Amino acid sequence: MERALTAVILMALVTYLPRVLPMAVFRKEINSGFIKSFLYYVPYAVLASLTFPDIFTSTTSMVTAIAGTLTALLLAYKEKSLVVVALCSMLTVFITQLIV
Question: pLDDT band for position 83 (50/70/90)?
């Protein structure tokens, strides 16, 4: 019981500190364009780094994974909506799997 309570407290600290620490340290508004830009893009970079490796192992064939990824990248570059990108990528993978 004591170990579980210690684990919960440690997890709470690890989760809570990164959220509170910036507010405690940076009381003034950040004026640096570089830092603002960096903080703006961090969530996108983290999301991409977490999901991108799984893209290539999500299908049974590397060819179908690459086809779906290329479709998603092309449609995202053309600024299509997330739903359109996801559906077209899945359709591309499905059709490619039927062919290959």
Answer: very high
